[in-house]
Amino acid sequence: MKKMTMTVAALAMCAFAFGQSNNSVVIQTGNANGSTVTQTGNINESLVGQTGDRNTATVDQDGVENDSTVDQDGHNPDQSIDPGGRDNIATVSQIGDRNTSDIDTNGDRNEATNTQLGNDNEAYVQQGVGYAEDNISYSDQEGNDNFSRQDQRFDNNDAGVDQLGNDNRAIQYQTSGPDGSPGNLARINQEGDGNVSRQRQKGNSNTAFDDQIGDDNWNRQKQTGDNNLSDVDQTGLMHRSDVLQVGDFNRSRIIQVGDTNEGYQTQMGDINFAGIYQNHNDGGGSGNVSTQTQTGNSNATGMIQDGITYWIGGSLATPLPHPPTSGYSDNNTATQTQDGDFNGAYSQQAGEDNILTQLQTGNSNRGYIAQDGIGNMATDVQTGDGNLTNTLQLGDLHVSTVSQIGDMNTSSTSQSN
């Protein structure tokens, strides 16, 4: 909006002139627009600018030195006579001191809500560049020094952030397509201190969930394509997860309980599945690292690193014939890489300092590895089609290496002490 920059300067001059006073400026151009501003406290500032018809802005600030900016506009090339946005809704509620909220909406029927309780929190929303329709965003922050940024492009995107604690950071970026295209869905929930989550989605009908409970956890999810799903849960301290999916109908899952576990997933292609689960008993595991990389279509990887769970299911081999005896999982490392179509890699580790590697190139290969103990090492490499490996190691300091090149090869290894 052309007058917004000048109005900001005017607000600053008013604050200097009136000292402890609150300041509110509302500029509306169009028809049937509505603005309600309520400010309680000192040195609070509110700026509302709306161009178009039937736009609504509500601002409620209680405290000291809070700052709210709402700019709702739009530019549709077909609106040559009456430019501006239509039926947009912006709601800001800030209780505390020195909180900042900025909502910038361009288009029609977009909705944004920023709610902040505490001090020194920041929430920024930008929906549409020139013109966008039917986007929804909300940010709910309780605590101090939290940060939220939500950017949405084109139509029908839905972004949500919930943060409870201090020094948390959430960033969401979503872009779909014009003319009523299906949008994307993103949710971040963080409880604790010092958590960071980033979600980026480009395409249609993608979904990203992140739930982090604890302190100093870090998550990044990037999805490009259509109908992809990424779901991350991290409970504990200093976990790290990184998910990248490019293609359509891919699924990824990371669950980490304990401390300092790391999970990485990369999928390039269509209809792939990757799952990581790192945990043990009630106390959680620590220092486990899992990496899954898949290129192709209809591949599946499964990784469990914990001390109480084991694979079950008719379509999967049972790597551990009983629940792990170690009862914990620390400092284990697992790497799974698949290149081709219809491959499957399933692995489990319990105990500590175990290492496993699965590499499969070709189509319709299957590999199973299970290790329960201390200092075991297993490596399975398969190149070709229709190969099968099954490796089981119980006890300590076992080493297994399997290499199969060709088609329809079968290997079974079992070691214990």
Outline:
By secondary structure, the chain is mostly beta strands. The protein has one helix spanning 4-18; strands at residues 23-31, 34-42, 45-53, 56-64, 67-73, 85-86, 89-97, 100-106, 111-119, 122-127, 136-144, 147-153, 158-166, 169-175, 185-193, 196-204, 207-215, 218-226, 229-237, 240-248, 251-259, 262-270, 273-278, 285-286, 289-297, 300-305, 329-330, 333-341, 344-352, 355-363, 366-374, 377-385, 388-396, 399-407, 410-416. It has an 18-stranded parallel sheet that branches. The chain has a 17-stranded parallel sheet that branches.
Provide a descriptive summary of the structure in words.
- The chain has 417 residues and is mainly beta.
- It contains 1 helix and 35 strands.
- It has an 18-stranded parallel beta sheet that branches.
- The longest helix is centred in the N-terminal third of the chain and has 15 residues, at 4-18.
- The radius of gyration is 26 Å and the shape is elongated.
- Residues 8-18 and 311-321 have low confidence and may be disordered.
